């Protein structure tokens, strides 16, 4: 995946971490769908696309891969070891909670 990103390829990257984890640093262009919300958001995804799933260490993204496979997605890849050892570009989302 890193080589494809470096070559400028457009990839479908799903970050299944919680929103605050995503906001603090994620792979540029990644889409945030927390693991607990994945099943309810399957309609946003295309079963014929290739997806790269990422979390902090690879555990949640592994569970997400199994969930997608159970719902007919065939081209899925778990990005391990995840963001804990990601050494390439990241972007951050500026967000605030207003009460």
Question: How would you sum up this structure, described in words?
Answer:
It is built from 3 helices and 4 strands. It is α/β, with parallel strands linked by helices and 99 residues long. It starts with a helix and ends in a 21-residue tail after the last strand. Helices cover 22% and strands 13% of the residues. It has a 4-stranded parallel beta sheet, covered by helices on one side.
Keywords:
alpha/beta, 4-stranded parallel beta sheet, single chain
Helix content: 10-25%
Which structural class is indicated by helix and strand composition? alpha/beta
Residue stretches low in confidence (pLDDT < 50, at least 5 long) are none
Write down the Rg: 13 Å
Mean of all residue-level pLDDT scores: 92
Largest sheet: 4 strands, parallel
| Major sheet: arrangement of strands | 2-1-3-4
Number of strands: 4
Report the principal-axis shape: globular
The fraction of residues assigned to DSSP E strands is: 5-15%
How far is the first residue's CA from the last residue's CA? 39 Å
Task: Provide the succession of SSEs.
Answer: HEHEEHE
Task: Give a short overview.
By secondary structure, the protein is α/β, with parallel strands linked by helices. It is built from three helices and four strands. The chain is globular and about 30 Å long.
Detail the topology: elements first, then pairings.
Layout (H helix, E strand, L loop, with lengths): L1 H5 L5 E4 L3 H5 L7 E2 L18 E4 L4 H12 L5 E3 L21
Parallel strand pairs: 1-2, 1-3, 3-4
């Amino acid at each position: 995946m890193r080589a494809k990103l470096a070559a400028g390829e457009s990839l479908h990257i799903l970050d299944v971490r919680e929103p605050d984890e995503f906001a603090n640093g994620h792979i540029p262009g990644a889409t945030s769908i927390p693991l607990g919300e994945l099943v309810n958001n399957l309609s946003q995804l295309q079963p014929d696309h290739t997806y790269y799933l990422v979390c902090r260490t690879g555990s949640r993204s592994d569970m997400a891969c199994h969930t997608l496979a159970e719902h007919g997605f065939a081209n899925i890849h778990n990005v391990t070891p995840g963001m804990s050892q990601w050494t390439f570009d990241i972007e951050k989302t500026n967000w605030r909670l207003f009460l």
